[in-house]
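Justification of resources, computational component.

The compute hours requested in this renewal are based largely on the per-chain cost of generating structure records like the one below. Each record pairs the submitted sequence with a full structure-token output. That output is archived, and it is also reused by downstream analysis tasks.
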Amino acid sequence: MANNIKKTYILAIVNRDREIFNKIKKFLLTNYNIYVVDLLKNEQKPFDKKVLVKKLKKYPISFIILKLTTHKDNIVIYKALQELDLNIPILNSINSVKMCESRKETFQLLEKRIKKLKIPQTYYSINEAVKALLKKNQIIIKLDSHNLGNVPKNDRIIGIAKNFNEFYDLIHGYDERDLFFQQYLGRHDMINKVYVIGRWVVSVVSHNRLNLNYNLSPLELVHIRVPIAEDLKRRIKRLGRKFGMSIFGVDYVLTDEGSYIVDINDFPSFRSIPEGISLISDHIYNLINIREQHYKTKVKIKG
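The structure output for this chain reads:
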């Protein structure tokens, strides 16, 4: 199939979920003759704007994929892409990738722009969290940084505070700027994970990491697919459009008051979605193809 399709080049600035991404690269090349120019393939070498410029001169790049672990050095990547002001489509917008590094920034945008999705009350300072404790609200404390490559996911959750003593014990030794405070919605053994690839949406249930204080069998660790309400599906897809993401993930819990969004992830790993690699590759190919058709139509009209 690939031999009958012209070779296309896309640029990847990716250092997260490399195992899955390498499978996507292989699928794109084999099935669509799309060659991925992998800028961060050598993980020992830091990002270099000069190398990026050389790659852009060498290859006719049609598309860009940005998928990064959370790190202060990422600002160099964002700045380089903004300075170059490339007229090249990107899978998830620079602003969305940058925003999803911070839980605070993510939920601030949710509060401002997405009115019909329920989210837990977020507290943006220690003072706000203390006032909530006064009202008998329990507080969940997490690291604000989201996609930390060197920190296991369980360690990104500091704990749950029911009172002042617990709260101050948990945050002791941390810088307030590195922490994220949110209303604790109570114990939920299962959490719903929604994966979005363009118009395709699937929901699975997973054991909540907060409650993994016991051993689970391999069967219990299987992610079971579950239906998702149509109105919630529409709102999640709208969230993606507002954020500038076409591939993303959302975690939510079911409560008596409805579904509450508790996490958003730009370009999740899709490890629990076997067909994810082919669907992502198809989506990238379609986005490139649509742009090329649009360009040809534009040139034809001008001509």
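The chain has a mean pLDDT of 89. The chain is about 35% helix and 25% strand.
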